[in-house]
Specification:
alpha+beta; five-stranded antiparallel sheet; 5 strands
Length: 116
């Protein structure tokens, strides 16, 4: 990762504002400023990990926590019954635009497959 702070690290450090809807000791969730669905939330770990490919065995608890938290956020938003999608883009060809691991939680409309 670069020595320069990512936009997500700046949100974690409260250097730039975000519409935060969930936070605990390990992660933070907030609405995406460029939503791709009626509901589009980003869930990021507070630990700086570049992407899914950079996860290590010592990150397994954090990785599990992120998935469990995605379900919790979906329930809190009331989107769990109709359905939602959790996406982790990895690398340039995977569509990753910020080099900080993050999960997209998308809902509020019928999501197509394949996605892109």
């Amino acid at each position: 990762m670069s020595d320069e702070k990512t936009i997500f690290k700046k949100i974690i450090d409260r250097e730039i504002p975000a519409n935060i809807i969930f936070e605990d000791d390990h992660c933070i969730a907030f609405y995406d400023v460029s939503p791709q669905a009626p509901v589009h939330v980003l869930l990021i770990p507070k630990e700086e990990i570049e992407n899914v490919a950079a996860l290590q065995l010592e990150n397994k608890e954090l990785a599990g926590h992120l998935l469990l938290t995605a379900g919790k956020v979906a329930r809190e938003l009331g989107i769990d019954q109709a359905g939602y999608r959790v996406v982790a883009n990895c690398g340039a060809d995977g569509g990753q635009s910020v080099d900080h691991l993050h999960l997209h939680i998308l809902a509020g409309r019928q999501l197509k497959w394949p996605p892109g």
